[in-house]
Each structure stands twice: as structure tokens, then as C-alpha cells.
Backbone:
């Protein structure tokens, strides 16, 4: 867990910031609890008056969160709410890792697999509500390598309905490489016990995913498959390819589509896991400094924003390269994360 | 020529049935509002079974026409289908877990999530080894058995067990036919790029409709192409012709 790594260096990291605005049509009273790895860190009573926003701001040091039930994936942050009436919640949260000297420079796939910053936010909601719960993982290029402060910023919006997303905030001093949102049924979020994460079962799936990949390569080589021709005229091989294609398509995938106008769209498709009923991402890179972010959920665009990300001179020349590297790392990281947790991956 | 046209027509019907099944399941999976996790193994089971079943059927039909030298009348069709279904038992067994997990995953997906995961990612890896390496040998053998037992009361599996030499020679014949028809298909599709189009046009989706786009592209990659309609019957004709000219090898 990356937090543990930093604890040794600074003992003050990571830090979690949560800002919540709560609104309701009716008077409502309730409790908001913030849990990290299942342990309650903060609990606040909130009174919501009609047509007013109630605000909760919390800054928490997560350095004690050494128990990492998801092995290498960072703390699991849960926001539990109990209100007498239904409310709308707008949540911005940032998790910040301080004292990170060289580790942010991309090193290897293994590095990502072991230390990839990962942050999960759980929100309990009523059965019939829908949450856009979490979850951004960003790969951040340091503003000034070796001198400046490196950080990881998560962008999270949560609402009881997709249409309630009002804004997306992005820290201006970072280069955001991927943004994605996940929508879950409230019932899933509430009913799935956290303990299911990090089980041996997930690791079995990781092994299987690797085996699967090896098997596909073997079939391709043995049949001179894709190396020889895109066309197969054996229905057996055709069926094997179909099985392989359908299984691959059922996994989480992360890819970039290059548009005809020169922009790129970074897409994450959830695959057949607990993220089902999801999702879109979409980050259009118009230029290294200019991003156009479109968030669509259930195949419908619900929010969009243009963001300028100032990159200092030293990074300007390599921004594009970095972006490509980041895609590779993100792909590797997501592949592992998602294949490791495949279907039983639970927020 | 008449026999070839009949084989060709049957092959067209088979390809369109496969395409429509892919399209139907594609619609179900791509529509996030109706998506159930069970659709994935069901999709896998039905489409794979159909592809493999049609393979045995076409092998049986071609063998019947060219090797046995007898026609298949309309009155033979039910028996032909029944025998093909019987010969399809091995891969039906392989696909049974998909079917069970699929139905479970549609009716009670929360309960069947684990089973679905297992079948889609684990079991199907085993099934794909079968389809890639065993089926190309088994399908012609099964087709040969179906063609020969169509108008007899012989037991299909007894016949298959008897024809060990056929199975042995099916390995190299399959490879030769695969190489020849694949090369031809590549030449044909390279000369006329329109032939690479799917036989049924798929509805397009914007990349921003991530889910739909993803599945539309997936289904499109699986869809039979126009060149399939041209080359598919050649696979079975060539196979049957080789078998006929090499029958002495199997005795």
C-alpha cells in the first residue's frame, strides 16, 4: 500500500479531504460517517433545512490506515449516511499523498501493480437510488520533478441521481490522464460486505487472466492465427476466437479512441463485474494542455467541462510522450486491478 | 455444380442464422438498461454451439453429397438434424455450464455472479482449447459418421469409434483445407475490400456511448463477413473431395 510506504517517509500521508454538500426538499436530520477500511474515523450529525445546503468539510490523516484489505490498492473509504428523508449529496474528495520523491516517476508495470494509488469511496444509499460513486484514479505528472510537491488527486462526484452532478473539479497543478465514474445500484453498495475484497478468489482470477492471455497467444501462434491472417476458415478456430473475444470483452477494458478531429477519447468500459450498469469516462485531449472532459453515464452524456492544465516548460516537450506512457501504465494497472478483481470486484 | 449450389445455399442460411443470433444477443448486451450478467455466458453458449453445430451439419451434408454419393431429401432433414444434434453432444457438454450460469445470471444475477465469472473466464478457456484443436478433427469425423448413418440403423458413436484412421487423417486434411481456404479468403477480401463487411450491417454507436460502442464493436468483430458466404462452402466441398479421393487411406 502506497500510504504505508509514505508513512515511513513522512508519517503524515496520505491525507483525505472530503467536502460534502447536502440538500433536501424537506427538513431532514441524519448522520454521516466516514470509515476507512471499515473503521469509523469521523461521524457528524447533519441537519438539513429545505432549500439550503448543509456543508461538511473533513480533513483526515490516513497514515494509520495500515490494514490494506485489497493488497496494494490503497485505503477503502466509505461514506455512510443515515437520513430521515432522502437527500442529495454532492461530494468532492481528494486524497493526497505527500512526501513522494521519486516514486511518482513511472518505473515499471510491477511498480504500478504494487504501489498504484487506488482509492475507493463507498456510499450507502437507499435501495432504489443510484449512486455515481467514486472513482477516479489519476496518473499525475509531477509539476516540477525533484522539487515540487507531488500529489494524487481524485475527482469524485456523488449524487443520488445522475442528473444531479453539478460540477467536476480538477486541481489545476496536475495533469489528469484519466477520469472515470462508476454508477452502482444503491442496493449493491449497501449489501455487499467489504470483507469480500482481497480474497484468494480474486487472486485466482488474476492467475486465470494471465493463463487466459497465454492461452490466446498460444492458439494464435499454433494456428498461425493473427500473425498470418485476419481471416480464419475453420469454425473451430472461429469459435475459439469468439470465446476469447467475448471473454476479453467481458473484462474491464481501458482504451483510447483517436477521433478524426485529432482529439483522443479515453474510455473505460467496466466489463462484467460489480461495476455493472456503468459508466463512462471520457477525456478528450485536444492538446497537451487542454482537456475536454465529458462524463457520460449509461451511454448518455451528463456533464462536460473544458479544463486547461498548465504544464511547466520542462514538461511541455514531453507531455505527449508522457501521456502515451501514462496510457500504457494505466492500461497495465487497470488490467491488473480489474482482472485481479474481475467479477467479484466490489466497491 | 447443382450439389455445390445446394451446399452454398445451406451455408448462406447457416451464416445468416449465426449473424442474427449474434445481432440479437449483441442488442441485449449492448443495451445497458436491460443488461444482465447472464447474457454473457448465454451469448457465448448459444453462438458457440450454433457455430460448431453448423460446422458438423455442413460437414455431414457435404460428405453425404460428395463422399457417400447420396442426396439428402426433405424427408431426411429431421433425421439429419437429429443425428447432428446427437453428434454435437461433446461440445454441448462443454457449453452446458455457460447455459446454466447464463440462465441463472439472467434470473438471479447477484447469486450467479461467481458462476458466471467462472464459466466466462475459466471454463471457456478450456472450451476454447477444445474448439480450436479437437473440434477441427472431430467435426469432419462426426459429419462423416452422420452422412453414413443417415439411412442406416447404425449407432452414430459406434461408427465414430470405428473410424480411428479417419480421425488421424482429419488432422492433416483439416490443416490443408484451412490453409487453402484461409489464403483464398484473404486474397478475395484483399482484392475487394467491400467483402470484409459484415453480412448484416450493425447499428453504429458513438465512442462516447462507451458501453454500447464497446459491444457493437465486439459483435461486429464476430459477425460473419460477405467473403464467408463465398468461401464457406468451399471449405466443406474441398474437404469432402479430398476425403473422397483418399478413401483408400481410411480402410
Residues:
Amino acid at each position: 500500500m502506497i500510504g504505508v510506504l509514505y508513512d515511513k517517509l513522512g508519517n503524515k500521508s496520505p491525507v483525505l479531504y472530503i467536502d460534502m454538500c447536502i440538500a433536501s426538499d424537506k427538513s431532514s436530520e441524519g448522520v454521516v460517517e466516514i470509515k476507512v477500511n471499515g473503521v469509523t474515523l469521523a461521524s457528524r450529525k447533519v441537519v438539513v433545512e429545505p432549500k439550503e445546503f448543509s456543508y461538511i468539510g473533513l480533513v483526515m490523516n490516513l497514515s494509520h490506515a495500515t490494514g490494506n484489505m485489497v493488497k496494494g490498492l490503497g485505503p477503502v473509504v466509505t461514506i455512510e449516511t443515515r437520513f430521515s428523508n432522502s437527500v442529495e449529496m454532492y461530494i468532492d474528495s481528494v486524497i493526497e499523498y505527500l512526501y513522494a520523491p521519486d516514486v511518482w516517476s513511472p518505473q515499471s508495470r510491477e511498480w504500478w501493480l504494487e504501489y498504484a494509488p487506488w482509492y475507493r469511496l463507498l456510499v450507502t444509499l437507499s435501495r432504489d437510488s443510484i449512486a455515481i460513486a467514486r472513482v477516479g484514479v489519476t496518473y499525475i505528472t509531477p509539476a516540477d520533478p525533484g522539487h515540487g510537491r507531488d500529489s494524487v488527486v481524485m475527482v469524485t462526484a456523488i449524487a443520488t441521481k445522475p442528473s444531479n452532478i453539478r460540477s467536476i473539479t480538477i486541481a489545476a497543478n496536475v495533469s489528469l490522464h484519466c477520469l472515470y465514474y462508476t454508477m452502482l445500484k444503491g442496493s449493491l453498495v449497501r449489501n455487499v460486505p467489504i470483507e469480500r475484497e482481497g480474497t484468494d478468489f480474486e487472486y485466482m482470477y488474476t492467475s486465470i487472466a494471465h493463463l487466459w492471455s497465454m492461452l490466446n497467444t498460444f492458439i494464435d501462434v499454433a494456428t498461425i492465427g493473427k500473425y498470418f491472417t485476419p481471416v480464419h476458415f475453420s469454425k473451430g478456430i472461429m469459435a475459439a476466437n469468439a470465446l476469447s473475444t467475448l471473454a476479453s470483452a467481458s473484462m474491464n477494458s481501458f482504451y483510447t479512441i483517436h477521433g478524426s478531429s485529432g482529439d483522443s477519447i479515453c474510455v473505460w468500459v467496466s466489463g462484467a463485474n460489480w461495476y455493472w450498469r456503468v459508466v463512462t469516462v471520457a477525456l478528450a485531449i485536444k492538446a497537451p494542455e487542454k482537456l475536454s472532459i465529458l462524463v457520460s453515464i449509461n451511454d448518455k452524456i451528463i456533464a462536460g467541462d473544458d479544463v486547461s492544465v498548465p504544464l511547466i516548460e520542462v514538461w511541455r516537450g514531453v507531455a505527449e510522450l508522457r501521456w502515451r506512457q501514462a496510457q500504457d501504465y494505466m492500461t497495465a494497472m487497470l488490467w491488473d486491478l480489474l482482472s485481479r478483481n474481475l467479477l467479484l470486484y466490489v466497491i | 455444380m447443382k450439389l455445390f449450389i445446394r451446399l452454398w445455399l445451406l451455408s448462406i442460411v447457416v451464416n445468416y442464422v449465426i449473424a442474427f443470433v449474434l445481432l440479437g444477443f449483441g442488442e441485449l448486451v449492448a443495451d445497458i438498461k436491460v443488461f444482465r450478467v447472464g447474457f454473457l455466458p448465454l451469448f457465448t453458449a448459444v453462438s458457440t454451439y450454433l457455430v460448431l453445430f453448423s460446422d458438423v451439419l455442413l460437414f455431414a451434408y457435404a460428405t453425404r453429397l460428395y463422399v457417400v454419393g447420396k442426396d439428402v431429401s426433405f424427408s431426411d432433414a429431421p433425421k439429419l438434424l437429429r443425428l447432428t444434434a446427437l453428434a454435437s453432444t461433446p461440445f454441448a457438454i462443454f457449453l452446458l455450464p455457460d447455459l446454466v450460469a447464463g440462465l441463472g445470471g439472467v434470473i438471479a444475477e447477484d447469486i450467479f455472479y461467481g458462476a458466471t465469472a467462472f464459466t466466462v473466464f475459466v471454463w471457456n478457456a478450456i472450451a476454447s482449447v477444445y474448439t480450436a484443436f479437437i473440434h477441427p478433427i472431430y467435426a469432419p469425423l462426426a459429419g462423416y459418421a452422420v452422412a453414413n448413418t443417415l439411412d442406416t440403423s447404425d449407432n452414430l458413436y459406434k461408427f465414430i469409434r470405428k473410424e480411428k484412421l479417419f480421425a488421424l487423417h482429419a488432422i492433416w486434411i483439416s490443416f490443408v483445407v484451412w490453409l487453402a481456404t484461409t489464403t483464398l479468403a484473404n486474397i478475395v477480401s484483399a482484392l475487394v475490400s467491400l467483402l470484409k463487411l459484415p453480412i448484416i450491417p450493425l447499428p453504429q454507436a458513438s465512442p462516447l456511448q462507451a458501453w454500447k460502442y464497446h459491444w457493437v464493436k465486439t459483435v461486429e468483430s464476430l459477425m460473419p463477413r460477405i467473403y464467408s458466404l463465398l468461401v464457406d462452402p468451399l471449405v466443406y466441398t474441398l474437404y469432402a473431395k479430398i476425403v473422397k479421393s483418399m478413401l483408400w487411406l481410411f480402410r
Summary: Residues 109-149 of chain B form the longest helix (41 residues). Chain B has a mean pLDDT of 86. The CA atoms of residues 12 and 121 of chain B lie 31 Å apart. Chain B touches chain A through 60 residues (CB under 8 Å).
